[in-house]
C-alpha cells in the first residue's frame, strides 16, 4: 500500500503543479521513478540537514561523477532534471502567450497551474529564474508525495488493524452512500464525523515533518519564567507534541473517538485540534494542507466503501516511526503495509 499511495499522490501533485499526470498508478507493482527517490536518499537526510552545502555540491557535479561518488543520489538528480524540464516548458508557454491569453490554460492543459500564477505575478525577475522555480517545483512535488503517502498508509494500517474502527467507518460510509459506485463530493465527506475523526487521528500519527523546524526570534519573548533573547533559534518536534500525554492520553493508541464532538483539550479551553500540528501552524504552515485533506477524505472514503481488505503479514512496526529522516520512517527491515483484497 505504501507504493500504491505514493504513486497516487505523485499523480495528483504533478497534475496540480504542472497540469500533467505521469500515470504512475499504472506502473507494475506501483514502483515508479519519483516514488522511490526519497526512500533511497533517506539515509543521507540527517547529514544534509546539518551540511546543506552537500546537496548543492552534488547537484553541481556532472551526473557521472555524482553517480560514482554517491550512486543513490542519481534518482534524485533525475527527479530535479525533470522538474527543471517542466519549469522550462511552463516558462516557454508563458512567453508565447500575450494579453488575456496569459490567464488562460495552455491548449495542451486543462487548468492554470501553480507556476502559471507565479509567472503572471509581480515577483522580481530573480525570483522567476529556471533554477529558482525548479527548486520550488522539487519542494512542492516531494512534499505533496511523501507526506500524503505516509498519512494514507498509516490510516490504512490502523483502520484494518482495529476491527472496531473498521466496522464503525464502514457503517458510516454505507449509511451515507448506499450506492458504492456513487462518488460523493468533498463537502459531503467532510460532514461525516467518524471519517473526519479517523483522518485527524491518522494525522496525529503522521507528523508531517519529524525533524525540528527552527525559527529565529526577531525580538525577545518571555516563556514561563525565562526570557529568550532575539536571534536565538527556537524549535520543537511534532512527534513530542502529538504524544504529549497531558493533551493526548494513551497517545500510542489509535483512537478516533478522541476527536468526536469537537472536543477541547484536557485541562484547556482550547480545542483539541489546536494541538494537531501535522501541517505546522501560523504563517508558515503547509501550503498544500487543503489539497492533502481532500485526498485523505476522497481516498479513504472510496477505498473503504468499495473494497474489502485485510492486513497480510503486517505488524505495527511497518508504520511506527523508528527513524527521523526529516520525515518519519519505520524500521529498515519492514516490508511496508501489505493487504489482501477479499
Mean pLDDT: 86
Strand content: 5-15%
Query: Residue share in helices?
Result: 40-55%
Structural class: mainly alpha
Residue windows where pLDDT falls under 50 for at least 5 positions: none
First CA to last CA: what distance? 15 Å
Q: What's the total number of strands?
A: 8
Number of helices: 13
Order of helices and strands: HHHHHHHHHHHEEEEHHEEEE
What is the overall silhouette? globular
Biggest beta sheet summary: 2 strands, antiparallel
Strand order in space, largest sheet? 1-4
Radius of gyration: 22 Å
List strands and helices in order, with pairings:
Blueprint: H1 2-18, H2 37-41, H3 45-50, H4 53-60, H5 63-69, H6 74-96, H7 114-119, H8 130-161, H9 163-176, H10 186-190, H11 193-205, E1 215-216, E2 221-223, E3 226-228, E4 233-234, H12 238-242, H13 289-306, E5 309-311, E6 323-325, E7 327-329, E8 339-341
Antiparallel strand pairs: 1-4, 2-3, 5-8, 6-7
Helix pairs in contact: 1-8, 6-8, 8-9, 8-11, 8-13
Observed structural traits:
globular; mainly alpha; 6% strand; two-stranded antiparallel ribbon; 342 residues
Short description:
The chain has 13 helices and 8 strands.
If you had to describe this structure to a student in words, what would you say it looks like?
The protein has 342 residues and is mainly alpha-helical. 46% of the residues lie in helices and 6% in strands. The strands form 4 sheets. Strands 1-4 form a two-stranded antiparallel ribbon. Strands 2-3 form a two-stranded antiparallel ribbon. Strands 5-8 form a two-stranded antiparallel ribbon. The two termini are 15 Å apart. The mean pLDDT is 86.
Amino acid at each position: 500500500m505504501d507504493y500504491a499511495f505514493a504513486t497516487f499522490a505523485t499523480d495528483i501533485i504533478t497534475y496540480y503543479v504542472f497540469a500533467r499526470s505521469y500515470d504512475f498508478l499504472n506502473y507494475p507493482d506501483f514502483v515508479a521513478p519519483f516514488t522511490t527517490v526519497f526512500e533511497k536518499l533517506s539515509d543521507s537526510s540527517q547529514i544534509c540537514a546539518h551540511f546543506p552545502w552537500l546537496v548543492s555540491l552534488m547537484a553541481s557535479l556532472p551526473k557521472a561523477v555524482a553517480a560514482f561518488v554517491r550512486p543513490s543520489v542519481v534518482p534524485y538528480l533525475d527527479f530535479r532534471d525533470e522538474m527543471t524540464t517542466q519549469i522550462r516548458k511552463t516558462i516557454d508557454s508563458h512567453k508565447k502567450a500575450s494579453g488575456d491569453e496569459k490567464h488562460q490554460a495552455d491548449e495542451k492543459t486543462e487548468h492554470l497551474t501553480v507556476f502559471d500564477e507565479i509567472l503572471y505575478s509581480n515577483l522580481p525577475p530573480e525570483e522567476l529564474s529556471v533554477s529558482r522555480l525548479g527548486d520550488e517545483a522539487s519542494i512542492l512535488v516531494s512534499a505533496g508525495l511523501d507526506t500524503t503517502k505516509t498519512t494514507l498508509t498509516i490510516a490504512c494500517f490502523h483502520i484494518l488493524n482495529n476491527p472496531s474502527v473498521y466496522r464503525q467507518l464502514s457503517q458510516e460510509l454505507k449509511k451515507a452512500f448506499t450506492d458504492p459506485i456513487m462518488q460523493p463530493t468533498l463537502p459531503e465527506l467532510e460532514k461525516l464525523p467518524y471519517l473526519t475523526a479517523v483522518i485527524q487521528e491518522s494525522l496525529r500519527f503522521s507528523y508531517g515533518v519529524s525533524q525540528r523546524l527552527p525559527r529565529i526570534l526577531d525580538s525577545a519573548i518571555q516563556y514561563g519564567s525565562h526570557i529568550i533573547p532575539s536571534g536565538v533559534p527556537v524549535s520543537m518536534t511534532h512527534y513530542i507534541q502529538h504524544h504529549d500525554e497531558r493533551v493526548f492520553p494513551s497517545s500510542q493508541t489509535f483512537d478516533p473517538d478522541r476527536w468526536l464532538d469537537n472536543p477541547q483539550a484536557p485541562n484547556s479551553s482550547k480545542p483539541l485540534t489546536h494541538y494537531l500540528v501535522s501541517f505546522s501552524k501560523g504563517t508558515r504552515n503547509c501550503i498544500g494542507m487543503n489539497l492533502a485533506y481532500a485526498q485523505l477524505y476522497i481516498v479513504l472514503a472510496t477505498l473503504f466503501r468499495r473494497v474489502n481488505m485485510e492486513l497480510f503479514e503486517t505488524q505495527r512496526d511497518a508504520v511506527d516511526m523508528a527513524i527521523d529522516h526529516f520525515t518519519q520512517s519505520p524500521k529498515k527491515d519492514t516490508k511496508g503495509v501489505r493487504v489482501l483484497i477479499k
